[in-house]
Amino acid sequence: MSNYTKRAIKGSMIVLIMNLLAAVVAYATRMILARSLTVTEFGLFYAVFSLLGFLLVFKDLGMSQAMLRFIPRLEVRKKRSDIKTYITTASAVQLISSGAIAIVLILISGFLAENYFHNSKAKWVLIILAIGYWISSLDNLLGIIFQGFQRFFIYTLHNLIRNIIILSMIIIFLFLGYNVLAPSLANLFVFFITILIFGFVFVKYVFKDYFKHKFKVSSKSFKHLMWFGIPSTFMVLGQSLILYTDSVTITYFIDLNAVALYNVAIPIATLILYVAHSLGAVLFPFSSELWAKKQIQTLRHGIKLIHKYVLAIIIPLALTVFVFPEIVINIFFGQNYIGAAPALQILSIGIIIYTIAHLNICMLLAIGKPRTNMWIILSAAILNLILNIILIQFFGIIGAALATSICYLIIFILSNAYLNKLVQVKFDIKNIIKFFFAGVIFVLIIDAIKRYLVLHYLIELSICIIIGLIVYCLIIFILKAVSMHEILDMKKKFFKK
User: Fold this and answer.
1) How far apart are CA 12 and CA 313, in angstroms?
2) Looking at 212-216, 248-252, 265-269, which range is the least confident one?
3) Which of 40, 108, 269, 449 is the most buried (most CB within 10 A)?
4) Where do the H-state alpha helices sit in 120-218?
């Protein structure tokens, strides 16, 4: 297990650090937009962006998930010609499907601007983003290929560079007076640049003999991709429904200002998910490889450790957001968006559940259960849609946050049940109780200290969190929720040469 543990830990650390850097840039981008645009303009951009995000599933057609499964398996067997065939086939499918959708969106942009967004500015925002939607197919596929080859530094560098370019171009376009069109133009031109840069990196450093291998027109490879991709498409459709239905429904039932508030709460809450996304990005190819080699015990042990230490990390993070929602919102987006605080509190609890659920979904997909994931995600997505339609009309963005959190719970319950059935990974309820007990003490300590401090809010927040974290760590060690032996063992394997 030593080799896999070392690779997984190193890969996770690289992805986590780079993803955090990318997240800092992405949040700086949102902060600049929130302070440079009016609340309505901010809401308008993210309303259009959410609509396109929902349609991403039809661009991809499950090709990304299929590539993540097949590239590691083919690389183990040294079948690089087949890898080239799969890459070329996936590229063609995505370019054709995304091109068709982009054309339709451009043709109906005026109708949507008038009848759905109720804002004439939405037309050009939609047209520009639709073109970017088509071009982004190749850029997104490059990222998936880097991940499939387990080149995690390049994979995360790709995301970081893209975010830096978007931020830089937004600042330039805002300076030139493009206002709400600034983020749209940045999200268009960035893909030309990243495709050139990382296309070169791909053929120079990742797949050096790419042009030496012949591309084969193979119905077999197409069928393999579609067999795995179609169920994944429905799974990603469900994920898109969960991720973007809130904003789409809020746009229809309320207004763009409410969309703006919700798109402040969601990114803050999902910031915690970067831990899960980083681990999931690394674990997917490793888990696929371990499953193919029938090393089930190694896989089982790894999943248990990941569940335990992810919960140990995310519970204090989520509860910090829960206790200080107004301060967190003010830091990132300013006073104009404080109205998002109640929704953020609800989402911060829901995200604890979804973090583990996301890792479960990654594991199920890696071991070749796309149909299982499809039914799990679709079931939760349909429930999310129904709850959004009902709750948003009565409770606004709070209703949207409730619907999403309930949906997260459903995904967790179903994914955990299936994973336990396939790999015999039982969720350690005793440890969960210990972590939440420590988390409650963490919250109570923060609240108590907060009542007696009258300082600048950043100093107050820092003091409360530091003291709270010290007590939290002591409690989880005293209760033996985590083990110093396990931590030292992982450290030993990480630094072992």
Assistant:
1) 14
2) 212-216
3) 269
4) 122-148, 152-175, 181-201
**Is 487 within the bounds of a domain?**
no
With the C-alpha atoms ordered 139, 162, 275, 327, is the resulting torsion angle positive or negative? Answer: negative
CA 340 from chain centre, in angstroms, equals: 21
Least confident of 32-46, 176-190, 204-218, 375-389: 204-218
Range of the domain at 24: 2-427
Element holding 149 (H helix, E strand) = none
Count of structural domains within the chain: 1
Q: Are 187 and 166 in contact (CB under 8 A)?
A: yes
Is residue 291 included in any domain, yes or no?
yes
Q: Which residues, 6+ apart, have CB-to-CB distance to 169 below 8 Å?
A: 182, 185, 186, 189, 190
Amino acid at the residue 154: I
pLDDT value of residue 491 = 58
Other CB atoms closer than 10 Å to residue 338's CB: what's the count?
A: 16
Q: Classify residue 458: in a domain, yes or no.
A: no
DSSP string, 36-58: HS-HHHHHHHHHHHHHHHHHHHH
Integer Cα distance of 260 and 490 in angstroms: 43
CB contact set of 7 (below 8 Å; sequence gap of 6+): 150, 286
8 Å CB contact between 35 and 336: no
